Amino acid sequence: MFVAEMECRGKQEWPELVGSNAEDAKEVIESENMYVIGIILPKGTIVTTDYNCRRVWIFVESDTANVAYVPKVG
Description:
By secondary structure, the chain is an alpha+beta fold. It has one domain (15-73): Trypsin Inhibitor V, subunit A (Trypsin Inhibitor V, Chain A), CATH 3.30.10.10. Helix content is 22%, strand content 19%. A 3-stranded mixed β-sheet has the order 1-2-3, with helices on one face. The longest helix has 11 residues, at 22-32. It starts with a helix and ends with a strand.
């Protein structure tokens, strides 16, 4: 486990949101962890690799706008 991961506060991942609407997922994530901001992106988007306790990537399917992968802090 990274040191940064141990310092992050609140809920860290949301497996229950896979397949759900991305906007709804963002709302759930931000309500369950007040320290993060959900960022919705199309599946396959290249993102920075730095670890950030305030960020949750929410990758979505292009045809449905539903969550494609487990959203996680990072």
